[in-house]
Amino acid sequence: MEVIVVGAGIGGLSLGLALHQAGIPCRVYEAAPAIKPIGVGISLLPHATRVLSELGLEEALARVAVSAVESCFFNRFGQLIWREKLGRAAGYDWPQFQIHRGDLQSVLRDAFIRRAGAERLLTGWRCTGFAQDADKVTVEFADTGTGEPLPPQHGTAAVGCEGIHSPIRKQLYPAEGEPHYTGYNMWRGVSRWLPFLSGATFVRAGWLATGKLVIYPIRDRIDAEGRQLVNWVAEIETPHHQRRDWNRPGRLADFIRAYADWRFDWLDVPAMLAASDVILEFPMVDQDPLPRWSFGRVTLLGDAAHPMVPRGSNGAGQAILDVRALVDCLRKERDPIAALQEYERLRLAPTAKVVLTNRQNPPDAILREVYLRTGDQPFDDIDRVISRDELRALSDGYKRVAGYDKETLAAGR
Ligand SMILES: Cc1cc2nc3c(=O)[nH]c(=O)nc-3n(C[C@H](O)[C@H](O)[C@H](O)COP(=O)(O)OP(=O)(O)OC[C@H]3O[C@@H](n4cnc5c(N)ncnc54)[C@H](O)[C@@H]3O)c2cc1C
Question: What ranges do the domains of the chain cover?
Answer without folding.
Answer: 3-66+97-178+288-360
